[in-house]
Amino acid sequence: MTPNALRWNGSPGHYEVHYLTTTDPRTGVGLWIRSTMLAQLDGEATCSLWFVATRPDGPPIARKATYPIDRLQTEGAPFSLRIGESELTDRGYAGSFDDVAWELRWEPGTLYEHVHPALRRLKIAQTILTLPHADVAVHGTVTVPGIGEIALDGAHGGQAHLWGAKHARRWTWAHCGDFADPEGNPVPDTFLDGVSVIVPRLGREIGPSSPVVARLFGRDFTATSPLHVTRAPSHFALTSWHFEVRDGKRRVVGEVDAPRESLVGVTYTDPDGERAYCYNSEVASMRLAVFDGDRFEGTLTSAGRAHFEYAQREPLPDLPLHLT
pLDDT tens digits, residue range 96-151? Predict the structure, then answer.
C-alpha cells in the first residue's frame, strides 16, 4: 500500500485528510490546501476541498466546498485521489472550486512517519500522521482572490496524509522547510514537522506527547519513540510552541510563533459529531537550535515561512471562524 493510499474501508467512524502546505517566497503568501473525507457514526459520509491562503500584510482567504461521498474516487497504483474538480497524485495536486484554483507539481519526496510502529500495532493512537512527501520543491500556479495568479518556482512544500477515528483534546502542529542560517543564507536539505498533543484517557488528560520528524543539515532526525515522545518538554498556546526533542545524541530546541492577526479559524468534526476548533497560520516563524552531543551544529531560522496550527475543543470567543 502506498503511503497516500486511502485507508477508509467504507465503514462509519473514520476521517481522513490529505494536505499540502507551501509558501511563495516572492509574495510571502502561505498556502494550505486539503482533500478530506468524513464518515460519521450517524449520517451520510461526505468529502470536502479546503483552500486557505495567509498573507503577511492582509486578511486571509478561506474557502471550503463539501460534496456527497460519491464525488470521491481513488486509485492505488499509481495513487490518485479525486474530489470534485481536484486530483492529488504522488507528483502533484490540481483543482478548482468557487474562485480559487491550483495547478501544482513536484518530484516525489521521502516518507516520514510520526507514529511509532509499536503504537500503531497496539492501536493506541487514534490518529495516524504521515508525510508521504515531506520536503519537496513545488512548481506551478495558484489563483487567489484579491491577489490573482501566483507562480511557484521551487517553493518549499510538504504533503501529508492523516487518518483516524478521533482528534486529540488539544494540540499544536508546525512545519517548515524554508530555513536560513544566521547570515541569511538558505540551508538546503532541511525541514522539520512536529505535533504536540493532549488526549483524554480514563477521565483525565494525558500529555503532551510530541513526535517530531526532520532532516537537519542533510541528516535525518526522528524523535518518535514512545519514551522520547512522552518525555519531551513541550509548551504550546494559541500563537506559540516551545519544544525540545532528542534523537540519540542529537537534540533540537525549537520555538514557533504566529501573528495573531494571521490566524484562520476552522472547525474539524469528528466521526462522533464532536467538534474541534483550530486556528491556523501559514506565515508563522520558526527558530531551531541543533546540537549533536556537546557540539553545537547551528541555528536555523525561518521568518514568515513556517506553518502552524493550534486546536482545542471550545471556540475562542474573540477570534472568527472562517470555515465550519
Answer: 999 999 999 999 999 999 998 877 776 677 899 999 999 999 999 999 999 999 99
Asked if residue 2 belongs to a domain, the reply is no
- Give me the count of residues in the chain: 324
**Domain extent at residue 222:** 14-312
Domain tally for the chain? 1
Q: Is the peptide bond before 208 cis (omega within 30 degrees of 0)?
A: yes
> Residue 48's closest CA among 16, 12, 22?
16
Residue 71 belongs to a domain with what CATH number? 2.40.370.10
User: Cβ of 293: how many Cβ atoms within 10 Å?
Assistant: 10
- Asked if 142 contacts 167 with a C-beta cutoff of 8 angstroms, the reply is no
pTM: 0.97
Q: Which residue has the cell 502533484?
A: 92
The answer to whether the Cα torsion of 103, 106, 108, 109 is positive or negative is negative
Q: What is the DSSP letter of 241?
A: E
CA distance 69 to 48: 9
Is 124 part of any domain?
Answer: yes
Q: Which helix (H) or strand (E) holds 101?
A: strand 100-105
Among 74, 81, 76, smallest CA distance to 34 is for: 81
Gap between the Cα atoms of 227 and 229, Å rounded: 6
Q: Give domain status of residue 6, yes or no.
A: no
Start-end of H helices in the chain: 117-122, 226-231
Contact predicate 125/119, CB 8 Å? yes
